[in-house]
Amino acid sequence: MIVRQAANVLEILEYFAKRLRPATAAEMAEDLGWPRSSTFKLVATLASKGYLYEPRGRGGYYPSPRWLVLADAVTRAEPLPDRVQRLARDLMQATGETVAIAAPAGTFATFVDVAESPQPVRYFAQVGDRVPIHATSAGRALLAQMPRDERARLYRKIDFVRYSPTTPVTAATVEARLDEASAIGWHQSNTEYTPDLAGIALPLPGGDRLLSVVVVGPVSRCLERRPEMAAIAAKHLAKLK
User: Fold this and answer.
1) 3-state secondary structure at position 64
2) Which one of 20, 51, 98, 111 has the fewest beta carbons within 10 angstroms of its own beta carbon?
3) What is the rounded (10 degree) CA torsion for 9, 11, 15, 18?
């Protein structure tokens, strides 16, 4: 369930991240396809709270540094370890494919760090993207770190949508995938959620957080490379222990 008012605030921030210049409330309403009245009210509220300001006076609004101050405080309180950020970049260079660090967020896995492949044909991902925790190797590498009873509670909340013929659509099927991963030493995926993508994932060792690392790219390039990519990832993870 999405709370529309909260989503609109975030969409405004994303809007400016793409626009990179001030905008009037009327421009925001037109570009975002929102009613003018509600857009004007939202802009006025954000401005009154100090989150938007007019850098040139009647030249349009722009996000104030207050966003950065708050984000910096939050990040410093719970930073992603440097070793984890280095891992994503090192693995991307070693495999040539997009690498993401994932963390659980309810029934989803959310990317908290991404090192995108430089190849023209690649998996496009960014920090904040989320994928179903049961239908991706990144998600199952998180599930594998949870106690069985915790997984059982989570399964009851999952909407087992069949995204493709290879998507696991029951709790029993997900558990079978976890058993398979335990036997071979890594989690794997093949177009389960996103068409034409294949990848591998491993749990991140140590620390007090549930994290996983996933290496993913086009099926044409990565399907047969999965054992190789898993071996490269395992070698890099061994250095973190």
Assistant:
1) coil
2) 20
3) 130
